[in-house]
Amino acid sequence: MLQSIDNRTDDTLSRLRDYIREGRFASGDRLPPERELVDRLGTTRANLRRALETLERSGTIWRHVGRGTFIGDGQSCAMAHEDAVAELGRRISPLRVMQARLCLEPALAREAAIHASGEAISAFRLAQQRARAAASWAEYEAQDDAFHHMVARASDNVLLLSLFDQLNRVRRTVAWGNVERRSTRPPSDHSSFAEHEIIAAAIADRDPDRAWSAMRDHLRSVSERLFP
Length: 228
Known about the structure:
CATH architecture of the largest domain: Up-down Bundle
CATH class of the largest domain: Mainly Alpha
Distance between the termini: 38 Å
Order of helices and strands: HHHEEHHHHHHH
Largest sheet: 2 strands, antiparallel
Radius of gyration: 19 Å
CATH superfamily of the largest domain: GntR ligand-binding domain-like
Number of strands: 2
C-alpha cells in the first residue's frame, strides 16, 4: 500500500514539474488554483498537495494563504533555508532538540488520530514492518524517521508538517556524539518497536488523547536512552 501511495505522489510530482517547465513560469508567477491543477494533472487533491509540499520545501514554489501559490527562486531560497537550518543546529543542543520534539510531536499524533486517512494508517503499518526487518541501524533509523514523518503528514495540516520538517532538518545537523551500538541491527526487543505500535494503534482507533500520550511516552523513552 505505501509503495502505491508513494508511486502516485511521485507521478504527480513529475507531472507538476513538467507543467511548470512547459508553462514557462517565471519567478513570482502565480500557479492556477488547486482545483484547476487537479484537473490539468489528472490527479487527486491529496497527491497534488504532497507534490506541492515537496516543491515548497525545495524552494521551487512558495505559498501565501489567501493569495495563492507562486513560483520561487529555488536555488537562492533553498540555500538561504539550509544556512538558517545549519545556524540553528550550531546554536542548539541535542537535549533541546528532544525537548522541542516533546512539545510538537505528541500534538501531531493527536491531530493524526483525528484526521489520518485509511491509506495513512496502512502506511504506518508498512513502515513498522520495514523497521523490524531492517538489516542495519542506518536502515532502521531511515524507517524510524519515515514513521514520524508519516504521523506529521497524517495530521493533514500543512503548517504543522512544515514545522515538523524544519525541526527534523535541525535534528539532523546537531552533533549527537557517538551513540554506542552493541549489535549491527536493532534487537527484536528494541523498545521503539512496541512504542511505535502503540502510537499507530491509538491513531487507528481515532483516540487523540491516547495518541498524544503514546507519542510523549515514546519520545521520553528515547530521551532517557540518549540522556540517562
